[in-house]
Write a structure and sequence with these properties.
single chain, 154 residues, alpha+beta, 7-stranded mixed sheet, binds acetyl coenzyme *A
Amino acid sequence: MNNFIISLLPQGSTIPYELLLLADPSYQAIEIYLPYSDVFVVELAHKVIGVYVLYPLNKQESEIKNIAVLEKYQGKGIGKLLLQHAIAEARKRAYKKLWIGTSNASIGQLYLYQQQGFEITELKKNFFIDNYPEPIFENGLQCKHILMLCQPIE
Ligand code: ACO
């Protein structure tokens, strides 16, 4: 197993936008949640290869607003490690619920999030149509709605 190190990105560090834009194609959308979030990065041999962003919704609940792994490193279990780290971090911070959202077209992500204990809880109809300037496609399907998945933190 490779030696992946996951840590909180210190304030003032370079933001890995290349990674964040893989998960969220709108720079403007990222800029809205980033100032209120904590950014965690996974490094391999001092190179940032993955990221997740934890955003507090309120005192009880937080949301993973963004999770991404560099294409070259995808499919090696790093996304799973990042989700497990986020769940442990939410527990450490005494959150009661952790949320994550993904589109109707994001089949692999829906599989991964449910595999890691998240349950589909809400659907925000036309979220991507209403909030993004350009149509977004994944797996040959248009991203129209956002599915919100949630898991209780014990
Ligand atoms: N298609 C099919 N299966 C997938 C996919 C996919 N796109 N992504 C993950 N999986 C499955 C894997 O096959 C694996 O299954 P297994 O445990 O049965 O073997 C499991 O999920 C875990 O996969 P990992 O290797 O841990 O996932 P990876 O390191 O590739 O990270 C991630 C997943 C973060 C989604 C990555 O593929 C990525 O960066 N994608 C582009 C950006 C993106 O879409 N981010 C999520 C947007 S939603 C949000 O940010 C809140």
